[in-house]
Structure formats: structure tokens, C-alpha cells
Amino acid sequence: MALYYSAKRAANEAERLQALAEYRVLGTRPEQCYDDITRIASITCGTPIALMSLVSDEKQWFKSTVGLEARETPRDWSFCAHAIADSEPMIIEDALNDKRFRHNPLVSGDPKIRLYAGFPLETPTEHRLGTLCVIDRKPGALSDAQLIVMKSLARQVVTLLELRRRSLRLLNSLSSITSSQQVLPICSYCRKVRDSEGDWDYLENYLSRTTSMGFSHGVCDHCLDEHFPEVVDALKNS
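Below the sequence we write its predicted C-alpha cells.
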């Protein structure tokens, strides 16, 4: 019998796993955009380890890591599997003082977790795919400013994942369009497209009419600077 506690699975676990599969991100190579976020998280919180962790059926898999060579662990060992049970961050200031984790192999063995702070990656459909987390080998806590930055970074991870899913769906939809037009005319100024009837409309509207594709929206770096200056300032001052 295991001496540590495995996280209970949610009632909608099948739906959560299906949502995770739609992003087609498990097993993919590291990407700079995610590595930048985990690096900022590590520096902001002053921890040697930061991870972008995705919780699949039987394991937790790391899309991005700072300070850890492992790319995955069993789900039963996963702190993140506990963290995704709720929308709020899960902060464990000292894992040795928490009965759920004191005998966990990741506490008794490498990386010898003591402080764990996991911020759920929650999609617009309220599925929590994993976490952005920071880890230390000594007990600790996060300041209010660090909590604000980490929540913002977790939202940015979800934005990147949403953009990934949207791009994949766009490619699939474009490849399935059956039209006599071999080239889709796009206005160089307003970026509208012209359909087979000669009418001009935005690309999203055009695809909505001609495919079954839906859309979600993220925030680019330029708009982040313009509309969320407090987040940018917090990152710069960390």
C-alpha cells in the first residue's frame, strides 16, 4: 500500500482528457515561448525549478522545464494532479508537513520537493489541463506580488495553447474547403477575404460560413503591452 496520496480523478475526467488531446501538445518538442514563461516564473519566485506540467491519463508530462531534467513522472506521484482539482493555486509551503505528500517519491527522492506552488492551466471551457508551477528544495512561500505574476503567466500559457489549437483547427478547415478558387484573395489593407460571390468579409466570418470551424481569441504581445501594462510592469520589476 502506497504511503502517499494519489489525487482523485474528477467526475468529468474523460472530458478533460479529450480537451487536452485537442491541443495536440503532449510529446512535442520544447518551444521558446513556453520556456520563456517557465524561466520568468523561476526568476520571479526565486526557485530553482519551474515547470509547465500537463496531466494526462497515466502520467504528468512537462512541456517546459527549468532546473529539472525529467520530462515526465507517473501521475500517481504528481502534485499537479492534486492542483487541477480546483481553479485556485495550490501552495504547499513544506511538503514534509503535508500528509498527502510527505512520503511522495518526489519528496523523499529527487527533486526533494519542499515548497510547491501550482497554478492551474484552465481553458475557456473550464478544463484544467495541468499547471504552471514553481518548486524549491527548502520550505517557503510566495509573496502577493509573486502570486499575481504567476497567475498572469498561467493565463499566458493558456493563451498560447488556445492559439495553438486555433491554428490547428484553421489548418484543418482550410485543407477541407472545397472551392473552385485555388487562391483565396485577401485585401492587403483591411485583411478581409473575397468569397466566390465577390463579397468581402473578415476571414473568421468567411470560415464560419464555409466550414464548421469555431474560434477562440488570445492576446498578442503588442496588445498585452497596450492593454495589460500592470502585468508587463510586474514582470519587468520582478
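Strands lie at 49-55, 59-66, 72-74, 90-92, 115-122, 128-136, 193-194, 200-201.
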